[in-house]
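COURSE: Structural Biology Practicum
ASSIGNMENT: Worksheet 4, Part C
STUDENT ID: 0417
INSTRUCTIONS: Below are two proteins. For each, the amino acid sequence is given first, followed by its structure token string. Answer the questions at the end about the second protein only.

PROTEIN I
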Amino acid sequence: MRVLIVQSNANLGELWKRHLERLDANVVLVQTGARALNLIETTVFDVIVLDLVLREGSALTVADLAQFRQPDANVVFVTDTTFFSDGSIFRHSANARAFIETTTPAKDLAEIVHHYGSVTHARA
């Protein structure tokens, strides 16, 4: 399972990465939308863990390009805001599969990502 994490907070991203690697995921961590866009053009991912509020770049742009270039990639949005807390993210992003709080325990996030990565592999 190939996972892209797009998280501006490097420490938090590394924590998530370690938990996913324990589940045998191949994980790439980036901190900007621009870097994520470049990777989506060149590397296939099963799951993209995407912070909704990036310091640099737009999460929705990343999700849109992923939907266009990699329609089988599942996006797990994470956020520490109440933005889209009404569930409307699922109307804005066709490849959104989950919307969770940034404070979700890393082990739980890894299990959610692993589930959606397994779903992708089952479709292949």
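PROTEIN II
(use this one for the questions)
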Amino acid sequence: MPNTPTARRSSLDAMAWIAAYLALILVPMALLLVGPTPRPGGYWWDFALAIGYAALAMVGLQFALTARFKRATAPFGIDVVYYFHRYLATIALVFVLAHVAILYARYRPTVGSLDPREMSFAIGSGWIALLAFLAVVGTSLLRKQLGIEYDRWRRWHLLLAVVGLGAAAVHVFAIGSYLEPRWKAAVWGGMALAWFGLVVWVRAIRPWRLTRDPYRVTEVRREPGRSWTLRLEPEQPPEVAYRPGQFAWLTLRASPWAMREHPFSFSSTPTRPGAIEFTIKELGDFTRTIGSIRPGERAWVDAPYGHFEIDRHADAKGLVFIAGGVGIAPILSMLRALADRGDRRPIVLFYGNRRWDRIVARDELDALAAGALDLRVVHVLSEPPEDWTGERGFVTLDIMQRHLPDDARALDYFVCGPTPMIRLAERNLRALGVPHARMHSEIFDLA
């Protein structure tokens, strides 16, 4: 594992943020036991209440995980944080379900009837929270199977999450157990206000700040394989500061308040200032419209994000890039930067595509390999032409072993493409004995 100052600092930052997350859940729960507490109702009663409070704290902190705080996400990468958010939401829902199941299985007379006409206000708000959380998690896990369009899902996701959190907070304060004396209620009330404050920050204040730095589309360039490159220039220079390989949340044909931003990697390099570029493939509901964008249209750029970038690994003896399709976009950003900097470290690029005529930036890659970089490009085609003499199929372990140097375990690897390709590449790298710290992946699907 690399032991550079940057790596050590990143590890310490990661541990600090994980500790902060745990403290924000456990400390408020511990405070409930300070001073006077309700008379114990038995192990299962107290356990059910404990996991209920834990679930509320976890749900509230979900808003922090998706708030895109750059310092908090930097040690992990925002793609990892979003996956963490998804898994924690499922765990929090399991806690809520267990809370309800225990109380209704063992303390039915205490919690009352299931008939909505006879429920107390406190119990009714709890059921609203449970139904909202079920809808949030269910539609998140099954969005594609249900055919829910991404932008519509995001708006409903936020609405249901806010309703669920609000109903859960009302439920907890209306029940009032463990919230006496008043200072305990004040602590949890302050936490609830902070959670809702995050919503205001993300959906009101940050979009307002973006409106101060608009961009204009200056070029829409067709690329092979149903891909397009958008070139944007700031209306008021300079452009956003970013590092090669990072990504942005891009909003087109909508205001920053419309919740229609989408994550795309920079394919341009900050070594060529004045404009930024994104290379985007027609894959989903939004990206199918990219080709209809016209020069002069306004855009909003929330950036930079991500730690899939070479500057965090300046100690690497050599670099290996593994790309699938439009996963070449952030790798193009890094290769262009390396060329502009005169970097002469050995580089190998494994680039998987279906067909030869669908390879993005093919001529540019050949030019880089012929001059500016010590670059070897290995094209791998799953549907090659009849006269193809190169590698076929997918980027397998055998293909990698044929083209990697003898010191393969000492190199740093950057993988970007569809999820199945990433999984295959990571299996191959483990089989090669590459340390985990030298494997860097960019996950396409954040939702």
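ANSWER KEY EXCERPT:
Q1: The first strand starts at residue 215 and ends at 223.
Q2: The chain has three domains: 5-209, 215-305, 313-443.
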